[in-house]
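Help needed: design a sequence for this.
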């Protein structure tokens, strides 16, 4: 009777095993890509998403589909003369030199007279003794000095003028955040560039991931990445008085789920991330669980991006499939660009589930032998 008891126990265990589904951390590829529960009028299956395999052939048209372009414009560098332009709010320090014995501008025995610092008014004018009001905004210091000498020539023909400028807010740039030493910095001339100002502020904080620059000028905001400024010299824009610079960490991200190395939210470490780089960022896929032929990238486009001529996605929801077991699939994954909010999903391998079942069967048989 003992052998009958053992057989009954094993049969019960086998029945329980057959009745229960094997626990999994991800779906099979065919499950994820299954049609919806709805059917069309003709009885055919209904899909609310499109599926495209990423290969060399498909990349020929997929690369032309809309991409998530930056929302900000940018200003290319425009070289300027290395001289300051006087602006309202600047302070002028003026000294008048006159060798005439009976000069009206200097005291007896003196050859120079320092005038009280003159602040440039909002209308761009300053007041000078024996000259009156004079507009100097928009001039370089050299031009303003020559103009003042010309006006003084009516009173003191031999007078010479020495002039220096202390920039006011109209000739400063504000490094708001993202640098080691934020603050207001004077523009010593008209050819101060963005990278020059960042350098004066101590450089970009090393803690920022893929730092992004926001340049606020007037009522507009321009944006770019610091990496692009380093790589493309023409993007190192020339600053203007009143500009505000904000440097912040990258905000774009993508997700990884399923039988991936990590299930997490990942910030874009560079301006562009390929599917192959994304797999590296997430730590690859599970050797024992993942299906290397079933790597999915789920993306949702804006409604206005859909097209019927092949120049864009045919539906808002699109699933791109990657096959990491072929050279074509690997090369194509290295060219396929990840977009913000994409989901990289590693599906479960049926072989992994089979291994689990066989393991449970082996446990049941071991139990039978012990009984």
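Sure. Designed sequence:
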């Amino acid at each position: 009777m003992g052998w009958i008891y053992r057989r009954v126990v094993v049969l019960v265990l086998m029945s329980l095993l057959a009745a229960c589904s094997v626990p999994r951390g991800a779906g099979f590829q065919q499950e994820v890509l299954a049609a919806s529960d709805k059917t069309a009028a003709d009885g055919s299956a209904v899909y609310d998403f499109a599926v495209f395999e990423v290969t060399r052939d498909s990349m020929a048209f997929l690369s032309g589909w809309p991409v998530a372009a930056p929302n900000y414009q940018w200003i290319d560098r425009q070289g300027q003369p290395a001289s300051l332009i006087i602006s309202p709010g600047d302070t002028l320090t003026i000294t008048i030199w006159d060798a005439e014995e009976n000069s009206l501008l200097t005291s007896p025995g003196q050859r120079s007279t320092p005038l009280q610092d003159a602040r440039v008014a909002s209308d761009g004018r300053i007041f000078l003794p024996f000259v009156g009001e004079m507009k100097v905004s928009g001039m370089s210091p050299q031009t303003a000095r020559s103009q003042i000498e010309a006006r003084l020539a009516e009173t003191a023909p031999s007078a010479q003028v020495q002039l220096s400028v202390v920039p006011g807010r109209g000739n400063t740039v504000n490094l708001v955040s993202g640098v080691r030493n934020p603050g207001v910095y004077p523009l010593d001339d008209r050819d101060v560039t963005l990278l020059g100002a960042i350098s004066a502020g101590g450089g970009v904080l090393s803690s920022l991931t893929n730092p992004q620059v926001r340049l606020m000028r007037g009522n507009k905001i321009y944006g770019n990445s610091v990496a692009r400024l380093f790589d493309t010299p023409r993007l190192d824009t020339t600053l203007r008085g009143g500009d505000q610079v904000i440097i912040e960490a990258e905000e774009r991200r993508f997700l990884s789920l399923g039988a991936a190395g990590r299930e997490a939210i990942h910030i874009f470490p560079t301006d562009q991330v390929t599917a192959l780089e994304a797999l590296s960022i997430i730590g690859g896929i599970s050797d024992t669980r993942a299906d290397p032929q079933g790597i999915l990238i789920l993306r949702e486009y804006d409604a206005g991006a859909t097209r019927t001529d092949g120049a864009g996605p045919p539906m808002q929801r699109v699933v791109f499939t990657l096959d990491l077991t072929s050279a074509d699939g690997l090369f194509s994954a290295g060219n396929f660009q990840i977009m913000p909010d994409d989901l990289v999903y590693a599906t479960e391998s049926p072989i992994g589930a089979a291994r689990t079942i066989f393991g449970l069967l082996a446990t049941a048989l071991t139990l039978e032998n012990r009984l």
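The first helix runs from residue 2 to 19.
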